[in-house]
Amino acid sequence: MRYRPGEGGRRHAGPLHHSAAVRCTGTIVESQGSGQRVEMQVQQVEVLGDSDPNAYPIQPKKHSLEFLRENAHLRFRTNTYSAIFRIRHQVSFGIHEYFNGKGYNYFHSPIITASDAEGAGEMFRVSTLDAKNPPLNDDGSVNWAADFFGAESRLTVSGQLQAELAALALGKVYTFGPTFRAENSNTARHLAEFWMIEPEAAFMDLHGNMDLAEGLCKHLIARVLQHSADDLEFLDKRMAEEEKQKPQQQRSEMGLIERLKFVLEHPFERITYTDAIDILLRSKPYQKKQFQYPVEWGVDLQSEHERYLVEKHFKKPVIVTGYPAQVKAFYMRMNGPGDFGYTDKGPTVAAMDVLFPGIGEIIGGSQREERLDVLEARMDAMGVPKDQMWWFLDTRRFGTVPHAGFGLGLERFVLFVTGMGNIRDVIPFPRTPKSAEF
RNA sequence: UCCUCGGUAGCUCAGCCGGUUAGAGCACCUGACUGUUAAUCAGGGGGUCGCUGGUUCAAGUCCAGCCCGGGGAGCCA
Predict the structure, then answer these.
(1) Is the ipTM of this complex over 0.95?
(2) From the Cβ of A317, is strand B under 7 Å away?
(3) A188 touches strand B (CB under 7 A)
């Protein structure tokens, strides 16, 4: 690109390179070019910061997302990523807007925890001990009492347990912060560091929980449609281009904006786990033996089953409730006769998973077990150490109350609203196994 | 962690059954031309073929191990 001052001028001011920062002075005039209303007739150009085209990795052409991921420090400069991160902002802001509007208090659960009983997955250790020569006990084990916190401590996998404490005081709270899982998960839907929103409300049951979750998703979608129309338009076109490359069968029926509006305008399907199993048993892929994993009451739903329910059978977001107790966490409320989701096929809990097309589980939540004796029995049965959890059990000892909540994965939601395919593309600096650069 | 595909120029890729000096498009540099917007035309520079070892007269190509990435699965948000 060359800059020529004045009309028909030939005086070259030198090359202007891609990504150079310039300050231009000139006159804004009506443009003769197509696709733009105005343009600047430049009288003066000042190069604030040049950019060496032989060294600058981003070129004015279409790059692969994999390549841009490896240049995560520069990828915001592309139109795709700047659109994604503006939308991520709108979603984040909308979360506060939604909960604030409903009288929820933004509650800061701790990032560092010394309890190992949250049961949501492998945890990262936090320590200031010398990794090569830690202080040892007489029996050769590491002396954690000498560590910074005086106990073995880790990064949180969930703020839920603390949010429960707060909900039983403030009534309605939500957390919104980073969460860490040391799982060796290598998928387009998993991060080692991700952001999670966890509302928790006293006197709320499973139905209220479902209403809250659906309301949140729809509020966020509406907000993005309203405030990020240009960026959605861009991503919509981008997705349409990508779809053209795919074989007919794999193409999605709706464009991005069309899909967002569809989800906004239709109620989420609400079914029990038991009904879901029945639907799967009657499904074509089951009868043609196309499912890789078995379908029978008592086993957890696999990705292929969730995808069938959401993408083939209902073709919209689905909330599945009343899972078998054995596949869910200890703090979920046991269903008894008369409770929603109860069945004589086996013990179930008041769990709920919100499943979205293309992504799968975007929200996981439940009504919590508020009865001390039932909760303690569950903890014993599942090997959760009650002594470490005394503070959690105290909520059930001193004025317990029915309550419920859920966890929404921010990045998974942003994945859905941007139409992107890999979760590493909707967080600025993804942390995954073997990767924490930038 | 498992299955699968891949790693060749700055980027996207081709490179046959192992065989001479490893190619193309784009990008970049020089020049020409130009109300352009994926401009065009001519010329030019640019390579540790992921790493290590092995087989062979000869390895980008075959074999083994390792590293990294994509897609799928598990774990989950």
Answers:
(1) no
(2) no
(3) yes
Residue A226 CA, nucleotide B17 C1', distance (Å): 61
A245 Cβ within 7 A of any nucleic strand B atom: no
Whether the Cβ atoms of residue A5 and residue A42 lie closer than 8 Å to each other: yes
User: Is the alpha carbon torsion for A354, A356, A361, A362 positive or negative?
Assistant: negative
CA dihedral angle for residue A68, residue A435, residue A410, residue A396, rounded to 10 degrees: 180
- CA-closest candidate to residue A418, choices A427, A426, A410, A430: A426
DSSP A346-391: S-BB-EEEEEETTTEEEEEEEEB---HHHHHHHHHHHT--TTTTHH
Task: Answer yes or no: is A196 CB < 7 A from strand B.
Answer: yes
CB of A61 within 7 Å of some strand B atom:
yes
- Can you tell me the distance from the alpha carbon of A358 to that of A38, in angstroms, rounded to the nearest whole number? 40
How many Å apart are CA A102 and CA A192, to the nearest integer? 31
Biggest CA–CA distance in chain A, Å, is 87
Residue A55: predicted pLDDT:
80
The rounded distance, in Å, linking the Cα atoms of A348 and A341 is 7
- The distance (Å) linking the CA of A370 with the C1' of B60 is 66
Residue at token pair 């509650």: A107
pLDDT of A179-237, one tens digit each?
999 999 999 999 999 999 999 999 999 999 999 999 999 999 999 999 999 999 999 98
Query: Which residues 404-433 of A interface with strand B at a CB distance below 7 A?
Result: 407-409, 411-412, 421-424, 432-433
Taking 70 as the pLDDT cut, the residues of chain A under it are 1-15, 33-35, 116-120, 245-250
Judging by DSSP bridges, how do beta strands A403-409 and A193-202 pair with one another?
A: antiparallel
pTM of the model: 0.92
Contact A371, A336 (CB under 8 A): no
